[in-house]
């Protein structure tokens, strides 16, 4: 079994959650949507979480899961469905970077249709963290691998935003979960403008099929579409019918795309529908945290780390 990447401190004891266990639940999450505060530390390549302060904790971050999270169900319920769950691994760790331009826009990328996990979803750049990497270094590496952007030292600041418990498939109605992650969202604020950053973007066509920049106004509407509710049938009057994006063609060339705004407001289907283009539920959570950060709402909830 691979070394655990997520450890929990529960009642003073250290434990590695099994694949089928809900991290939110083990940390005392109730039946509601959350958010629940989690104290965090990064120790020897592992993310340590607790619902109580502990020596070495460097942040207190909001932890959340979608209302339909498969791991919110009891282990017995999963077994009752005849689920074949992985037995040789625990909960994996991922990091995602919300890259903010100096004119306050966030970069999102669309995963290619050929990816095995979460195809065709709009997400911020991100992925795994190597055991010998720091969290920020892993996030910046993933940003460069997916978008081609390398941020010069001294030209950005960063802060951890929050933690998301992620499953794929995302609903039990889609089938038993095959992947279980805790995603740490990092806000990286660049001193460069959207135009300056876009001029240097070189998407990796094996992972990224399109990218776009979201400003606060559109992001607020996208973030307000909670998964677990129906997709809005009509756009608010103040919303534009489309948002500008850049898409990679089959020949690898970039072309401008008018992406229907309604696409960004879709929610997770109740039945299996891989490949339906939408913004992931974790991304909506991260956008809500970003908007709070911009508006200085509930700032005391976060412990900031700038470098």
UniProtKB/TrEMBL annotation:
Source domain of life: Eukaryota
Which cofactors?
A: Mg(2+); Mn(2+)
Tell me the SUPFAM superfamilies matching this sequence. Nudix
Q: What is its EC number?
A: 3.6.1.62
User: What Gene Ontology terms describe where this protein resides (cellular component)?
Assistant: cytosol; peroxisome
BP GO terms, sorted: NAD+ catabolic process; NADP+ catabolic process
Reaction catalysed by this chain?
A: a 5'-end (N(7)-methyl 5'-triphosphoguanosine)-ribonucleoside in mRNA + H2O = N(7)-methyl-GDP + a 5'-end phospho-ribonucleoside in mRNA + 2 H(+)
Q: Which UniProt keywords apply?
A: Hydrolase, Magnesium, Manganese, Metal-binding
Q: Which PANTHER family match?
A: NUCLEOSIDE DIPHOSPHATE-LINKED MOIETY X MOTIF 17, NUDIX HYDROLASE, NUDC SUBFAMILY
Q: Which family does it belong to?
A: Belongs to the Nudix hydrolase family.
Q: What does this protein do?
A: Acts as a decapping enzyme capable of hydrolyzing monomethylated capped RNAs (in vitro). Hydrolyzes monomethylated capped RNA after alpha and beta phosphates to form N(7)-methyl-GDP. Shows low activity towards unmethylated capped RNA.
Q: What is this protein called?
A: m7GpppN-mRNA hydrolase NUDT17
Native species of this protein? Suricata suricatta (Meerkat)
């Amino acid at each position: 079994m691979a070394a655990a990447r997520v450890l929990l401190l529960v009642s003073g004891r250290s434990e590695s959650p099994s694949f089928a266990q809900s991290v939110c639940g083990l940390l005392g999450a109730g039946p509601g949507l959350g958010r629940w505060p989690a104290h965090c530390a990064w120790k020897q390549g592992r993310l340590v979480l607790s619902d109580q302060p502990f020596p070495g904790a460097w942040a207190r971050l909001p932890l959340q899961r979608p209302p339909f999270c498969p791991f919110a169900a009891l282990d017995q319920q999963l077994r009752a469905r005849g689920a074949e769950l992985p037995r040789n691994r625990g909960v994996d760790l991922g990091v995602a970077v919300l890259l903010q331009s100096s004119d306050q826009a966030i970069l999102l990328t669309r995963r290619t249709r050929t990816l095995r996990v979460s195809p065709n979803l709009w997400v911020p750049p991100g992925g795994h963290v190597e055991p010998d990497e720091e969290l920020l270094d892993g996030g910046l590496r993933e940003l460069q691998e997916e978008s081609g952007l390398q941020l010069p030292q001294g030209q950005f600041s960063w802060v951890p935003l929050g933690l998301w418990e992620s499953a794929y498939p995302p609903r039990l109605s889609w089938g038993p979960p095959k992947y279980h992650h805790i995603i740490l969202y990092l806000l990286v604020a660049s001193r460069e403008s959207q135009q300056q950053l876009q001029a240097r973007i070189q998407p990796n066509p094996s992972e990224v099929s399109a990218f776009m920049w979201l400003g606060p106004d559109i992001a607020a509407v996208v973030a307000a579409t909670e998964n677990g509710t129906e997709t809005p049938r009509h756009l608010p009057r103040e919303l534009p019918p489309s948002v500008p994006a850049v898409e990679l063609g089959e020949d690898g060339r970039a072309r401008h795309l008018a992406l229907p705004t309604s696409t960004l407001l879709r929610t997770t289907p109740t039945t299996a529908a891989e490949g339906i283009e939408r913004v992931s539920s974790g991304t909506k959570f991260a956008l809500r945290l970003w908007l709070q950060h911009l508006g200085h709402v509930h700032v005391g909830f976060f412990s900031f780390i700038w470098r």
